[in-house]
Design goal:
The chain is of the alpha/beta class and 331 residues long. The chain has 11 helices and 12 strands. It binds nicotinamide-adenine-dinucleotide.
């Protein structure tokens, strides 16, 4: 199939492009190439890369037309919670307005399929037990999560109102090679390698569910090929870990002690725990993550060790953000 992957130069989008191209799809990428986008991740897997925003209707229409696109997979987003706390405006522009523009263009072009990549964060936070199902209410807590929830509702409304053949996936925290070092795992790897203090929010007891990026992409590909319009699919792994345990596991893999760990003031509105019930995706899509957390983490650490230059170059761009976050006083 000829597919358009938006945000395909990002962390998960690029892994998806590599997977989909390997499975025989012809993949065109549309990406704004923000600080988070990097065409190096594609390694030649994309048929063509267009630089621009999903919020640019003219451009989106031109790409759909020129490339004779049959389906869209939308990964494009502002994706970092801390940045959304500093400034929510780009989150509304890309995640909400951009998604609406894409939906409208998909409708105008009579596309066969639209897969929208959402997040578990739209459900808000859980206490120590339980799991979110697709029927759980939306209770987003950060501006990032709120913008993703708004986009989800638009996707569902376009299906219901106009019959757009769209479905949604809601993955939990992804990790793996090529992740931009503002997210927990690559930040910790960098800080440990650089011998710098490792900031851990609060007491480090917040729990996340970790999904290896290739497993996530297999779920998204299954949604593209088999997902039913109007459906929502949670993509979780069952691999829950408190953040402090993740930090310790990385230090262990790198042969470092815990003296670098520094507890910092918690992020405002920091959700305590996420956990997805993915039985619907398992039943409908055959979704079955293969990579256990310890295995995936060890592969990830090895990848960063072999790509230190990429990691250190990205961190140089980030230092300004870290300064601003620290000045805001929550870390
Ligand atoms: N990383 C995770 O753990 C995780 C978990 C659940 C869901 N998600 C969702 O998955 C998707 C991909 O996440 P990621 O971690 O790869 O993010 P990322 O930040 O690495 O990549 C996002 C990509 O989107 C591009 N982009 C940003 N604004 C754009 C715009 N207006 N038009 C076109 N492209 C634009 C960026 O240049 C970048 O290449 C996002 O929608 C995110 O909300 C991520």
């Amino acid at each position: 199939m000829r597919i358009l992957v938006t945000g395909g130069a990002g962390f998960i989008g690029s892994a998806f492009v590599r997977l989909a191209a390997g499975a025989g799809h012809e993949v065109t990428v549309l990406d704004k190439l923000t600080y988070a986008g990097d065409p190096a991740r594609l390694g030649g897997a994309a048929h063509r890369l267009y630089r621009g925003s999903i919020a640019n209707r003219e451009l989106v229409e031109a790409v759909l037309e020129k490339e004779r696109i049959a389906a869209v997979v939308n990964f494009a987003a502002e994706s970092h919670v801390d940045r959304s706390i500093l400034d929510a405006a780009p989150f509304v522009e890309t995640n909400v307005r951009g998604t609406q523009v894409l939906l409208e263009a998909a409708r105008a072009h009579g596309l066969q399929k639209f897969v929208h990549v959402s997040t578990d964060e739209v459900y808000g936070e859980l206490g120590p037990t339980g799991a979110f199902t697709e029927e759980s209410p939306l209770r987003p807590n950060s501006p990032y999560a709120a913008s993703k929830a708004a986009a989800d509702l638009l996707v569902l409304a376009y299906h219901r109102t106009y019959g757009l053949p769209a479905c949604l996936v809601r993955p939990c925290n992804n990790y793996g090679p090529w992740q931009y070092p503002e997210k927990l795992i690559p930040v910790v790897i960098y800080k440990a390698l650089a011998g710098q203090p490792i900031p851990v929010y609060g007491t480090g007891q917040n729990v996340r569910e970790w999904l290896y990026v290739e497993d996530c992409c297999a779920g998204v590909l299954a949604a593209l090929e088999k997902g039913r319009p109007g459906n929502i699919y949670n993509l979780g792994s069952g691999e829950e870990r408190p953040n402090l345990e993740v930090v310790r596991a990385i230090l262990n893999l790198l042969g470092r002690g815990e003296e670098l760990v520094t507890f910092v003031k918690d992020r405002p509105g920091h959700d305590f725990r996420y956990r997805l019930d993915s039985s619907w995706a398992a039943a409908e899509l055959g979704f079955a993550p293969r990579v256990r957390f310890e295995e995936g983490l060890s592969r990830t650490v090895e990848w960063y060790l072999a790509h230190r230059e990429w990691l250190f170059a990205k961190v140089r761009q980030l230092e300004d953000l870290w300064r601003r976050v620290y000045q805001m006083g929550w870390s």
